[in-house]
Design brief:
- The chain is of the alpha/beta class.
- The protein has one helix and eight strands.
- The strands form two sheets. Strands 2-1-4-6 form a four-stranded mixed sheet, with no helix packed on it.
- About 25% of the residues are buried.
- It binds copper (II) ion (CU).
């Protein structure tokens, strides 16, 4: 009889392994970083839920691309939350449009005609997703 009881307990424990782990006692390894898509335009940024990411993997205030005035800069939204591309600084006389709210899968493209440095942020996360730059030569 004792042996039978042990078997029953083992079955219960084994069944528990396949269920959720609210106590966090059985952590699984973190998932690999997501593979990001290709933004539209000549060069651009991926937008994920905590960062603008440039074509070299740099994020937010370290993210920067350099283009010539005839090139198109694109953004591809691959996060789950609403984000914007909102310029906080542009060269004198330059025009840069705001993307408005972007959802997952949305794209945004700008051709920036005036040389200089353009700085943008996300207006829905202005303290965490900020100071990414575009340099137009
Ligand atoms: Cu945002």
């Amino acid at each position: 009889m004792k042996k039978l009881m042990m078997s029953a307990a083992t079955v219960v424990l084994a069944a528990g392994c396949g269920e959720s782990d609210p106590a966090g006692t059985n952590p699984s390894p973190p998932p690999p970083p997501p593979t990001l898509g290709t933004p539209p335009g000549d060069v651009g940024f991926n937008i994920i839920d905590d960062a603008f990411v440039d074509d070299q993997g740099r994020r937010n205030d370290e993210a920067s691309v350099t283009v010539t005035a005839s090139q198109m800069v694109g953004w591809l939204h691959e996060g789950a939350n609403v984000h914007t591309v909102s310029f906080t600084s542009v060269p004198a006389g330059a025009i840069a449009n705001d993307s408005g709210n972007m959802d997952n899968g949305a794209t945004f493209v700008q051709t920036l005609a005036t040389p200089g440095t353009y700085v943008f942020r996300c207006d829905t996360h202005p303290t965490t997703m900020l100071d990414a730059t575009i340099i137009v030569n």
